[in-house]
Amino acid sequence: MRLVLSFEDEFSFYAGQFVNLKRPDGLTRSYSIANTPAQSNTLEFHIKRLPNGRFSSWVHEELAVGEKLSVSEAKGACHYLPGKYDQPLLLVGTGSGLAPLIGIVNDALNKGHSGPIRLYHGSRDPEGLYLVDEMQALAENFENFDYTPCLSGEHDCEEFTKGRAHDVALSSAETLSGWRVYLCGHPEMVNQTKMMAYLKGASLSDIYADAFYTAAGK
Fold it and tell me: Full-prediction pTM beyond 0.85?
């Protein structure tokens, strides 16, 4: 579900950060922002419906246009940093971990980032890969941006790369020395890839991670 909230008062955030959304009864969950500050007066979220998920099911089934949600201040250090515009960027996400990475990619491109930007999005099933057409169109418009959707399950689709996104991403570069790395999504993938990226030469100070932990009844 693509959820877009509009706001009247000024709201400061960096693309890729997250906020806590609270519904009227107080139930609160954290979600990453998928858009950039340049898209004025809106916040966009990609909310996956989870089995027995109290908040996500409510968003999919009951939340109506015009209702109000409470939003915390933006949090998290996994966002685009201006400067070093020629630095290569590697972004790896699984599932709805694509959301903050889209914001980071768009923010980098809007700010004139000239270095290569490689985005790898992974899912076990084809249904978990979304906004494929939009990402492919973006790659066609910017020579320094590459997008690779990956499938790790048993499905064989010619349009998608076979394998786990982080494995495909890490095998695409001989070294990550000098690269900036962004990792978002399943905690196991994030933690494993963070170590693998470091062993492949990336500085720990250049690795930004946002693991999506799922609380029971989310």
Answer: yes
Residue 76 maps to a domain: no
Q: What is the pLDDT of residues 82-92, one digit of tens each?
A: 889 999 999 99
Give the range of the structural domain holding residue 162, as residue numbers without chain letter: 89-211
Angle between helices 132-141 and 98-110 (to 10 degrees): 20
Q: How many domains does the chain contain in total?
A: 2
One-letter amino acid identity for 93? G
φ/ψ of 56, rounded to 5, equals -65, -35
Map residue 22 onto helix, strand or coil. Answer: strand
- pLDDT surpassing 80 at residue 112: yes
Answer yes or no: do 22 and 115 share one domain: no
CATH number assigned to the domain comprising residue 167 = 3.40.50.80
- What pLDDT, on the 0 to 100 scale, is given for residue 41? 87
Name the 3-class secondary structure at 176.
Answer: coil
Task: Look up residue 117 and give its two tokens.
Answer: 């930007």
Q: With helix as H, strand as E and coil as C, how does 99-156 read?
A: HHHHHHHHHHHHCCCCCCEEEEEEECCHHHCCCHHHHHHHHHHCCCEEEEEEECCCCC
Same domain, 121 and 185: yes
